[in-house]
Amino acid sequence: MIQNFAKSPIILSLLLVILHQQVAAQNSDYGVNVPTQASISNPMQATQAPIEELNEQKRPPVEPETFDPVADKDYLTAMFKLNGSKQDNDYRGAIFYLNKAAVQGHDKAREELAVQLLFGDHIGRNITAAIEVFQDLSARKGYPRSQFYLGFVYASGLGAKSNQAKALTYFTFAALGGDSLAQMALGYRYWASINVVSSCEMALSHYKQVAQNVASKISTNSVGTVINRIRIYDEEEKVSSQSQAMLDDDLVQYYQLLADRGDVQAQYGLGLLHYQGARGLSIQYDKAFYYFSKAAESGNNYAMAYLGKLYLEGGDHVKQDNLTALKYFKLASEKGNPIGQAGMGMIYFYGSSVEKDFTKALKFFQLSADQGYVEGYFMLGIMHFYGYGVKKDFKSAVKYFN
Known about the structure:
Blueprint: H1 9-26, H2 51-54, H3 69-83, H4 91-103, H5 107-119, H6 127-140, H7 144-156, H8 164-176, H9 180-192, H10 200-216, H11 241-260, H12 264-276, H13 285-297, H14 301-313, H15 322-334, H16 338-350, H17 358-370, H18 374-386, H19 394-401
């Protein structure tokens, strides 16, 4: 679960901030004075109450959500076009469907349009109109995302007179509503003492909520997407988008030709392209599985490691199978593959098809890290941070995370 933070540099950076504070706490008698009566209206005397106490505050009544299947379908279509893979992105179509849903009174569509208007993404910039929508949705529906952006507006003075007291108020309510950006903003403010009294306890509370939110969205069995990429082609970096598309298509066809002729590296390369969704290809795990299987049959240890990941994660492309994942991780690990070693570490760390063994997990993570594999380093940091199989040591955790 938590190992997949390696996929998010932001979360990893935030965790490092927290760790540095805890290291300082270990080396001194550092303490935090918590005022018993603090006022959000005065940014330099902001509330120091624990997050649990803030969560008990009563929120103003908001209008119940209404559901219009037609408007909701337009909204979902817009978000698919907005957030799709590179070749599926259709920003003009996304704005069209957002407008269509917004006209029908779909508040989430109105909110997304307001974000586009605020930054001028794919639509003409209109900060005043964006603020009006955020204020309406914040007051009428209590949307945390709108509250965050109002906090951002008042904090930055973008389109409104800077008012740090209002910014802190909106950030606080947005954070209470579960908005991760607001939680990170408050965490940083309390850590860096920006218009609030410095409090490591409050910073940790906010950052922890973000980390837990990310962790809850990640499969506990997932080894995670590999961070260090395998370079399988060389080319000029600065080319036009049209030339790049042609080059991508030519490369894929070239590797397809080689793979069909039994070239192991081409088979592995195509598997990786489909696994990561690179070079104009969408993520297609079934094709990745096919090419990794071909390459693994010829002894490619990276293909074996990725097959282990696919079996461990499971999905429509392949049935989840811890024993088969263990088989491929072991084969790759015996060939000295760092991804396979990290996979073996995960198997023993979570006790997937084997008895949980932190000592063995630590050994495999160390072997993986010794080859410079980022996930090996990250999991060593996790083990030292929480004291899994080793003595809890924040200094060592910081070292591994760095």
